[in-house]
Amino acid sequence: MKRIGFSALLVAAASLAACGGGGSGSNTPPAKPVLQSQGAWIGTTYAGLITPDGEGWIVPLQNDGSVTKIAVKESANTVSGSGHYYEGLMVSSVSSQGNFEAKKSITVTTTAQNGSKETVTAQYDAVYDGTPSLAAIAGNYTGVNGGNYTMLADGSVTGTTGYGCSVSGKATLDKSGKNFYRVTLTEGAAPCPYPGLALPGVFVLKGTQVIGAVAAVGKVGESFVLNKQ
Fold first, then answer.
1. Are 109 and 122 in contact (CB under 8 A)?
2. Where are the alpha helices (H) located in the chain, listed in sequence order?
3. Are 198 and 186 in contact (CB under 8 A)?
4. N or C: which end of the chain has fewer CB within 10 A?
5. How does pLDDT run across 7-16, given as a tens digit for each residue?
6. CB proximity list for 112: less than 8 A, separation 6 or greater
């Protein structure tokens, strides 16, 4: 935009403010900018999801159960953020920094409290641009590290993790219309570490494989890679 045009906008805004606003009196905050880094990102050893509202999830495809969740900020073609790394009952604060090319590739380095670093490179997966459907996720699944799960066409989820924790909950479509799912799983009795605790999360259905994670901030989190039977 030309500088003179920008100046004119400032003058107009000042005039409106002097008159008490633009007539509607609304104090509605401006909409958040759409993140260009959003999408499903699939690499060789890790997968990631950045949601339109800035949730960042990193899941190991070999599925050791760990998960990283960060709040993503974006500037030009860089991403950054802070959050937590979960592995079993261990929780660690982390920060992340990286670069991306929209709908092509992303590289993110995550640094833990002890200074250890992990760099993830992944490519954009067009599955994110598909049409989500609860009917599509219905079926029986087996986790790559054990465990069995059942999803119904109404979004109901029940299952048992690889270490014997029973969970139940509900999957829903995201309000953005993008092709990923929200899910909340509630832990059952022991050996679950937090009986009755609800863990919100996300997952992507890629072909016949579900890739996702859930986390209760600062307490416990777990990733899952499930194959449809």
1. no
2. 3-18, 134-137
3. yes
4. N
5. 332 233 334 3
6. 85, 92, 93, 94, 118
CA-to-CA distance for 83 and 214, rounded, in angstroms? Answer: 14
Model pTM? 0.85
Evaluate if residue 173 carries a pLDDT over 60.
yes
pLDDT surpassing 50 at residue 19: no
Q: What are the Cα distances from residue 150, in Å, to 2, 105, 146?
A: 57, 33, 14
Percent of the chain clearing pLDDT 70 (strictly above): 87
Other residues' Cβ atoms within 10 Å of the Cβ of residue 102? 13
- In angstroms, the CA 224 to CA 143 distance is 7
Residue 3 reports pLDDT greater than 50: no
Burial of 49 (0-12, 13-18, 19+ CB in 10 A): buried
Q: One-letter amino acid identity for 127?
A: V
